[in-house]
Amino acid sequence: MKIGVYGSSFDPVTNVHLWTASTIFHRKKLDKVLFLPSSNKRRDKNLNICDHHRIEMVKLAIKDDPRFELSTEEIYAPLGRQYTYFTMQILKETYPNDELFFVMGADLLENIGQGSWVQGDKLLEENQFIVMARDGIDMLKTIAQSPILRNVDDGRFQLVDKGLAMEISSTYIREEFSRGGEPRYLLPESCYQYIKEHRLYQEIE
């Protein structure tokens, strides 16, 4: 099987996350997409709600789509190993006969290229990637300008332009909730109701 590993904070999961996963599934002829929420123990993430709530919302968002599955490998990883490199090691052991691709946005590609990821060199050397376009980021230029990226550019980066500049940030949704706004149709209805029920994102520092 060909499996996409879609890592993100999902804070909260949005309709664009789902649309992106569906587009990647179709374009790259994947057999499955794993939604991989980031752990709040990561020092490179500043998450707004606890892991439990983000897990529950991803479950709600994907429960009716058999193409999508939740992976909590990073959430429950031992302290110090809650980073993508270690997670991909575990997933490759879990799916030894399958082909895995880490799915990320071009903004994350930039971050890895700048050397800001834990074990970023090894992550690049040992894995394949599907990279989604982001407004204002030239993916080919990003690879060419980074020694870390260009020296492993042997076809392991599959660059995807979704063809539609549809960007809904989780930050915008959080801000709307915190200020009494109405972001209802930017995320799955079940997740919207979950946020309202649990009074999440009520205050943003």
From TrEMBL:
<keyword id="KW-0808">Transferase</keyword>
<dbReference type="Pfam" id="PF01467">
    <property type="entry name" value="CTP_transf_like"/>
</dbReference>
<keyword id="KW-0662">Pyridine nucleotide biosynthesis</keyword>
<protein>
    <recommendedName>
        <fullName>Probable nicotinate-nucleotide adenylyltransferase</fullName>
        <ecNumber>2.7.7.18</ecNumber>
    </recommendedName>
</protein>
<keyword id="KW-0547">Nucleotide-binding</keyword>
<keyword id="KW-0548">Nucleotidyltransferase</keyword>
<keyword id="KW-0520">NAD</keyword>
<comment type="similarity">
    <text>Belongs to the NadD family.</text>
</comment>
<feature type="domain" description="Cytidyltransferase-like">
    <location>
        <begin position="5"/>
        <end position="175"/>
    </location>
</feature>
<keyword id="KW-0067">ATP-binding</keyword>
<comment type="pathway">
    <text>Cofactor biosynthesis; NAD(+) biosynthesis; deamido-NAD(+) from nicotinate D-ribonucleotide: step 1/1.</text>
</comment>
<dbReference type="GO" id="GO:0005524">
    <property type="term" value="F:ATP binding"/>
</dbReference>
<dbReference type="InterPro" id="IPR004821">
    <property type="entry name" value="Cyt_trans-like"/>
</dbReference>
<dbReference type="GO" id="GO:0004515">
    <property type="term" value="F:nicotinate-nucleotide adenylyltransferase activity"/>
</dbReference>
<comment type="function">
    <text>Catalyzes the reversible adenylation of nicotinate mononucleotide (NaMN) to nicotinic acid adenine dinucleotide (NaAD).</text>
</comment>
<dbReference type="GO" id="GO:0009435">
    <property type="term" value="P:NAD+ biosynthetic process"/>
</dbReference>
<dbReference type="InterPro" id="IPR005248">
    <property type="entry name" value="NadD/NMNAT"/>
</dbReference>
<dbReference type="InterPro" id="IPR014729">
    <property type="entry name" value="Rossmann-like_a/b/a_fold"/>
</dbReference>
